[in-house]
Amino acid sequence: MSSLAKLVCTLNSAFITPALHAGTCPAPARSPAPAMPLDSIANGDTSSLGAPPPRVPGPDKDALAILTGQIHALLERVRPDGGPAFVKALDALGLGDTQALTRRQSDRLLSAFKLLPTIKPLPGEAWKAGRQELLRNALHDLTRAARAEAMLHEQIARHADRQRRNALPGSERSVTISGDVGARFGAPLGGPGAGVKAGGSWTGSDSVYDDMTVARGNTSTLQAAGHIGGMVAPGLGLQGTVSGYSSLADLDISLSMQAHVVRLGHASVERRLGGNAVQRALKRITGVRRDRYGERTNRALAWQSRLPMLLGRQAVTQPLAFSTRGVLIRAALTTHGGALGVNAEYGPGHLGGTGSMSRTELCAALPVRVTEPGKDGRPAGSDAAIQSVLETRVARLAARQEALLPPALQQVRQLLKHPLQPHHLGMRLAAVAAVHAAFDHLQALGELQLRASRQAALPLASLLRDWGVESGGHTDAMINMLDTLAWLQATPEPPPGPTHVEWTHLQRAVQVEARRVHETALPHDRQRVHHATHAFREQIQRTASSGFTVSVSGSLPAGGVSAGFSVARQVRQDPDPLRDGTYYVLTFQAGLGLSIGPILSEVQRRFPEWGALPLSEVQRLMDPLAVAADATGTGKVEVRFFRPSFQDAPGFPASARGSRLYTARVLRGTSLTCGLTVPIPVLPAFSPNLGAQYARNDQSTFAERIGANTLTGLLLRYRSLCSETMSAAEAWVALQASHGNDLDRLIDTLADAASPPAVEARFWLEQKTATLDAFARAAGHATRRTQLLALFDAVGDATSRKKAMSPLLAALTLPAAD
User: Fold this and answer.
1) What CA–CA distance (Å, rounded) separates 478 from 492?
2) 10 Å Cβ neighbour count for 15?
3) Which of 360, 340, 362 is nearest to 246 (CA)?
4) Tens of pLDDT along 589-601?
C-alpha cells in the first residue's frame, strides 16, 4: 500500500468520529446490508450476522416518511432566520407533520427556497452562518430526494393501474411503424395483374408469457410479398399471395409484472427529471443518460451521517434505503417464416384462407451472481471455468509490487503462491475483513466527494490506485473488490469437521459482504457492475409452428365486420419439461371495425368545394392515393391442447399419453391502423409505389381457465408465480385466489390413481409417492389443498433437476477481464 493510502486509513480510523461532529468528514454510508465487525470476520464468527435476503424490487415503504420527518426537523431550524416571505410561503403550503410529502408539495417547497434571504455573517459569528448554510443545503438536497421518491411512488401506482388488465399471460401491447416499396403490373380498374413489394418494420412491444415473465422488446423485420389476381367473373375477384419475413428482437425480460412495473416507474421518473420535452428528445438522440433518481437519493443518503450533528441523535432513528429494480434478463429472439394465401371477393364480402410456417429461437442470458449459493449450496464461483476467470482477474490485480498492494491483495498474493496451505481459510477470512475495511473507506470518501469534491479527490485517487484503478471511478474499484471476494470464496469444500465449519463461515461472510457492495448507495454504473460480476447461462428455446387460417369479412357503410378461425401446431423445444412438447392451438376471432375512408368520401361529397378548389380538382389529386385509417375492436377465444415430451419416455404408461386441454382464454383487444400508399405512374401497365403504415395493438386476457386433466398447467403457473417479488407462500395464496376452481378440479382428478395427472405425478416422483398416495384417503377441503401444494413442491423439484441437465442450457460463463 502506498504511504499516502496508509496515512488516509490511519486518519480515517483515528479521527472519523471527531471529524463527523466537526462537520468536515462523513461516516461510512448506510447500506441495506449490515456492516460486519472486522474481528468477527477475521475470526470466522458470522453466526450473529446472518445473510440478509436480497430486497424485493420496488421503493422502500418507509423512505418517504423518513425523509419527511427529517425535512420537518430542518424546517424548524431554518424557519426562524428564513424571513417573512419564506415563512408566509411555508404557511401557505400547510404541511402536515404526520403526512408524507407529495410531489406537488415538494415542488412548492423547492420554489419557496428561492425566497430565503442571503446569509450575511455577523462579526464573530461566522460559525453560525456556516451552520445555517449547512442546514439549507441539507434541506434542499433532502427535499429534492423526497420529490423524486414521491414521483416514483406516483408513477409506479400509475403503471400498476394501467398494467392491471395485462396481469394474465397472453396480454400484449405493441406499436409498429413500417415502410415498403412495391410495383404493380397489369391492367388498371381491377383487371388481371400482379404486384410485388418489399419493406421493413420496427415494433415495440410488451408481452406477458406463460411463465408470468414480462418482456419488453424492440423487433426489426424485413419482409417481402407478391400477389397475382384479377376479376374472373362479373363482381368476383380472386387473388393469391405469397410472403416471407425475417425478424430479430432484443428483449428485456422482467421476472414478474411487479418488477416490470417498477422498471416502468423508474423510466418515467428519469424522463420527468430529465427536463422539458425538447431536452429529453435531445438526450435520446445524443444517448446521454444520467441516473437522476440515483443522484438525488445518493445525496440524501450522504446527509444521513451529518444530520445528528445538525439536529441531534434523534434525527436518524432508522436507516434510510431507496428503491431497487430487480433482475433483468437480456434475450434475443429470431424468427423466420412465410405464408401462402388465397382471397376471394364478391361484392362487399371477402373470404380468405392462409397457410403459414415459422421457426423461432429465443436465446436468453440468465444471470447468476457469482457469490450467491445455488440450489446445491455451492456458489457459482466454485465452477472450474468461472474460477479460472476469477483467478486470472485477481492475479492481474495482485501482480504489482507488494509494497503498493492493500492488505487484502497482499493476502491474495500469498494465497496465489500457496493456495492450499494449512491455514489458508483463516487467511481468506482475514482478506475478507480487509476488503470490508477498504469498502468502508471507499463509501466514506464517496460521501465526502458529493459535498466536497476537492477535499476527497486526493485520498480517493490513492484508494482507487490501491485497487488497480489508475483512471476511473468507483465502479472499477467495486468490480475488483467483488472479484476478490468471489475468488476468496471459491475454494474446495473440505470434509466434515472443524475445517468445514470455518469454510462455511467463509462462504457466509463473502455472501454478506458481496451483497453489501452490490446494494450500496454509492454512485456507480450498476449495469456495468452487474455484467462484470455475474455469470451468465445461455438458455435456448425453439418453436416450429405451422397452421392455417380461414377468415370472412364484410363491408359496411362506415367500416366492416370480420370473423376467423385458425388452427396451429407448435412443436416447442424447451429446457423446462413442463413446457417442452407439442401444442395445438384453436382460435376463434370476431371483430368490428370503423374505417375513415367512407366517412371522408361522404364529407367530400357533402362539401362540393374546398375553398377556391373545385371538387373535380380535389378528386383528381386524391384518387391515386390509397389512404387507410381503421379502428377495430376484437374478441377472441383461444383453446390450447398440450402433449408434453416426457410422455415419450420409456417408463411412461401408454394409457396416459396424448394431448389434453392446457388452457382456455378469452381475450379482447383494440387496434388502430393508418397507412398511405403513393403510386408513381410510369407506364399504363406498370406503376411503382411507396407506402408507410402505423399500427397500434392492445390485447389483454379477460378470463382464463387452466386444464385439470394434466398436472403441467397448474404446476407451471405455481412455479412461475414464485419469483423475486413473491415468496412460495404468497404464490400459493395468489394461485388459489385466481384459479381456485381449477385447483379443486385437479384435486378431484388426482383421487383417481389411473388419471393422467396422477400418472404424470407418479412418473416424476418415481418411488417417493407418499404425497400422491395421500389423495386416496378421505380428507377435508383445506387438507386437500395442502396436500396438493406438497405434491407441487415435490414434482417441481424433480422437474427442476431434469431441467438442469437439459442440453438447451449452456454452461455458466463469466466475462473475461477487460
Assistant:
1) 25
2) 13
3) 360
4) 999 988 776 666 6
Provide mean pLDDT across the span 397-404: 78
Residue with cell string 364478391:
346
Going from the C-alpha of 290 to that of each of 296, 441, 523, 708, the distances in angstroms are 11, 25, 11, 50
Distance CA 264, CA 277 (A): 18
Q: Is 556 or 671 the better-scoring residue by pLDDT?
A: 671
Helix then strand then coil, in percent of the chain rounded to 5, is 45, 30, 25
Q: Which long-range contacts (CB under 8 A, 24 or more apart) does 772-779 make?
A: 775/747, 775/750, 775/751, 776/751
Contacts of 587 (CB under 8 A, 6+ apart): 564, 565, 566, 567, 568, 636, 637, 638, 639
Which contacts qualify for 398-402: CB closer than 8 Å, 24 or more apart?
400/468
d(CA 749, CA 485): 51
DSSP per position, 618-682: HHHHHTT-EEEEEEEEEEEEEEEEEEEGGGGSTTS-GGG-S-EEEEEEEEEEEEEEEEEEEE---
Burial class, 111, CB count within 10 angstroms (exposed 0-12 / middle 13-18 / buried 19+): exposed
**Number of alpha carbons in the 13 Å side-chain half-sphere of residue 661:** 13
List pLDDT tens digits, range 513-540. Answer: 998 898 887 778 888 888 888 999 999 9
Of 321, 315, 304, nearest to 20 (Cα)? 304
DSSP 722-739: -BTTB-HHHHHHHHHHHH
> Radius of gyration (Cα) for the chain, nearest Å?
33
pTM: predicted TM-score of the whole model, two decimal places: 0.83
Closest C-alpha to 441, from 469, 462, 455, 411 = 462
Question: What letter does residue 324 receive in the DSSP assignment?
Answer: B
- Over residues 296-317, the pLDDT tens digits come to 888 888 888 888 888 877 777 7
